[in-house]
Specification:
The complex is a heterodimer of chains A (317) and B (301).
Chain A: H1 2-17, H2 34-59, H3 65-70, H4 78-90, H5 95-127, H6 133-145, H7 152-161, H8 168-175, H9 179-192, H10 195-203, H11 208-219, H12 221-236, H13 240-245, H14 254-264, H15 281-314
Helix pairs in contact in A: 4-15, 5-8, 5-9, 5-12, 6-9, 9-12, 9-15, 10-11, 12-15, 14-15
Chain B: H1 3-42, E1 45-46, E2 52-53, H2 59-66, H3 70-100, H4 105-115, H5 122-133, H6 141-146, H7 152-155, H8 161-186, H9 190-198, H10 203-214, H11 216-231, H12 235-244, H13 253-262, H14 267-291
Antiparallel strand pairs in B: 1-2
Helix pairs in contact in B: 1-14, 2-14, 3-8, 3-11, 4-8, 5-12, 9-10, 11-14, 13-14
Classes of the chains: A mainly alpha (317), B mainly alpha (301).
Chain lengths: 317, 301
């Protein structure tokens, strides 16, 4: 506790002394108040609550079932983690590799299609006046706040009618519909893209496509990154759509595969009957880790950017 | 045709050209399935022998509303919402306000730590929280045992499902909303806060009376999105049922829709569930869009 307080004070002094740091709101703050201590306790307590499960998940594959029961936050051995990976890789004829490839394939395709469709539409909605604009905007807003899975079952019937279930397209194409992305890019274009710039380019004889690609898109880089981030996270973690569309387990993505692994093997329910499968707690935890790590990397990579980007659009309005 | 109208026709075509790919997706994967769900829900039910009985109309709705599984599912989802949404609103505001008290590196690190659990969603979250709540495996085992839970069977009961799902949804979602609320608080003008301080207002009063009202439109937005997310819960109850046997295959509305479609082959009734979900969330969405100024931008003004 004292170490923390000391650090807090020294950073306050530093920022008071030199102007280039982020301005703190109150330069002269009394060092300790009961409320200040309570604030730190609450913030730290919640940080522990958030971090412990993640640390547990990273450590779990290194341990055997019995080690897991004895010491929850200890490190087992690399050897055990490698063994867990071999067990997982052998599961069901190496289907784990297929799931990883499928997840990458589905997510990257959906991200590419969703962003490619959303950005030009948002650009048109924000910079041009045309009939139907209000209607498209309203539909986009409604679609954005509706639960995405509400239409999955009728969507299944639609896809089934054209005999496309169990194909990659049945997962990729519906996920390319990305109203939230249109909204984000729309707000960005309508608040941060100077109209005079577009007019000037048009007067200079640029065609509409050229104006879009050489002026609007380069200026929209921050919001493009944001769209890619949100689209990737949504698609990588998508469960209900692939669960309904895909009945062939070789076509699953990782989250559906993980669901099948933990509900279809005795990994999490050893009491329900013995099994010769070497899929136990550490293997299940490792599979979970494989699903989570790409998203966690995206989070770390985008985190600074996210705070700025999320607000550059919405706050100004 | 004069020059001006020729120009506006050309502009209209350009705009539609730019929007075409998105409009195609909106139509094929948004409007058509929604319309198809309404059509299917109004068509007569089909029996196992393949012949249709009843007439066009509300027979599917009658069947669904009289199904012994429907109202308990409504109750389960409602209970989950009633627990989760308030905790989420209060929690994300509390942490955002506490972090905003003193902005610096410490609050940045905390935001990242709160954000990371959001990486664990869906089936991975079920897996992780199964471990976190099992008194024999959990790192929180001493807390669980002090609450009187000795084995997984004590924790994973039907009565505990709604709070468990609320806990999962809270830890997964709260970090993202703390980041958004914190960002919104950053836009509160400094001189307003300074003026209040000079007038003698303490930190708590400033937080509640000045900062909070200024971020209220984000709170509305958050409530709507949480409401829509809660309405569609599927993976958590499905996997918890298959792992722990707590709950059922029709604990939530989406699960019931799935059973209608894939266990009973009653697509009309599955479509009815879709329509119910769409109508309820559309009403909420419309109230929100009309009542808040969140979607006003410079173009419309």
């Amino acid at each position: 506790m004292t170490a923390v307080r000391a650090r807090g004070m020294s950073s306050a002094e530093k920022s008071g002394g030199s102007g280039h740091r982020q301005p703190t709101r109150r330069p002269a703050r009394p060092p300790v108040t009961p409320l200040g201590v309570l604030r730190l306790l609450v913030l730290f307590g919640f940080a522990v609550f958030c971090a412990v499960p993640l640390i547990w998940l990273v450590l779990a594959p290194t341990k055997s079932d019995s080690q897991l029961a004895s010491g929850p936050l200890s490190f087992g051995s690399f050897h055990r983690a490698v063994l867990a990976w071999h067990h997982l890789a052998d599961y069901n004829g190496g289907v784990m590799y297929r799931w990883m490839l499928n997840s990458a394939y589905y997510s990257i395709s959906s991200v590419a299609l969703s962003v490619a469709a959303a950005v030009p539409a948002a650009y048109a909605l924000a910079t041009m006046t045309f009939r139907g604009r209000k209607l498209i905007l309203s539909l986009t807003l409604i679609a954005m706040v509706l639960p995405a899975t509400a239409v999955v079952l009728p969507l299944f019937l639609e896809v089934n009618a054209v005999h496309l279930t169990n194909t990659a397209g049945s997962v990729i194409l519906p996920a390319a519909f990305f109203p939230f992305g249109v909204y984000l890019a729309y707000v960005y274009f309508s608040t941060s893209l100077p109209k005079e710039l577009l007019e000037a380019a048009r007067i200079d004889g640029c065609g509409e496509l050229r104006v879009f690609f050489s002026i609007a898109v380069p200026l929209a880089k921050p919001v493009l990154a944001l769209l890619i981030f949100f689209s990737f996270v949504a698609n990588w973690t998508n469960y209900f759509l692939p669960y309904v569309m895909l009945s062939n387990d070789k076509a699953y993505n990782l989250p559906v595969g993980l669901g099948a692994l933990i509900s279809g093997t005795p990994a999490l329910k050893p009491a329900s009957g013995g099994s010769f499968l070497p899929i136990t707690y550490p293997e299940a935890a490792l599979a979970g880790l494989i699903v989570v790590v790409p998203i966690a990397i995206m989070f770390l990579f985008f985190q600074r950017f996210l705070v700025r980007g999320l607000l550059s659009g919405s706050v100004k309005s | 045709m004069n020059k001006a109208s020729a120009r506006s026709v050309r502009d209209g075509l350009t705009a539609w050209g730019f929007s075409a790919p998105y409009l195609l997706l909106l139509t094929v994967f948004g409007l058509i399935p929604a319309g198809y769900a309404i059509y299917e829900s109004l068509s007569p039910a089909v029996s196992y022998t393949g012949e249709s009985h009843g007439s066009v109309g509300l027979s599917n709705y009658r069947t669904v509303f009289h199904d012994f599984r429907f109202w308990p599912a409504v109750g389960n989802v409602g209970l989950f919402m009633v627990i989760w949404v308030p905790v989420m609103v209060v929690g994300s505001l509390l942490f955002a306000l506490l972090l905003h008290e003193k902005v610096g590196r410490f609050s940045g690190v905390m935001r990242l730590i709160y954000f990371l659990p959001g990486a664990v969603t869906g089936s991975a979250a079920v897996l992780l929280w199964y471990f976190m709540l099992d008194p024999q495996l959990s790192p929180f085992r001493s807390q669980l045992k002090s609450m009187g839970y000795k084995t997984g069977n004590d924790v994973f009961t039907a009565g505990h499902l709604a709070p468990i799902f609320a806990l999962i949804a809270f830890t997964t979602g709260v970090g993202q909303w703390i980041v958004i609320m914190f960002g919104a608080l950053q836009s509160v003008p400094n001189d307003v806060i300074e003026a209040a301080r000079i007038d003698g207002a303490g930190s708590v009063r400033i937080a509640l009376l000045i900062k909070l009202p200024l971020v209220s439109k984000y709170i509305t937005y958050m409530i709507i999105l949480c409401f829509a997310a809660a309405l569609q819960i599927f993976v958590e109850p499905t996997l918890f049922y298959s792992i722990t046997n707590a709950g059922s295959n029709w604990w939530s509305l989406n699960q019931l829709g799935y059973s209608y479609a894939f266990q009973q082959g009653q697509f009309g009734q599955a479509a009815t569930i879709s329509v119910v979900l769409l109508v309820v969330s559309s009403v909420a969405a419309l109230i929100f869009v009309r009542r808040s100024s969140f979607f006003d931008t410079e173009v419309d003004s």
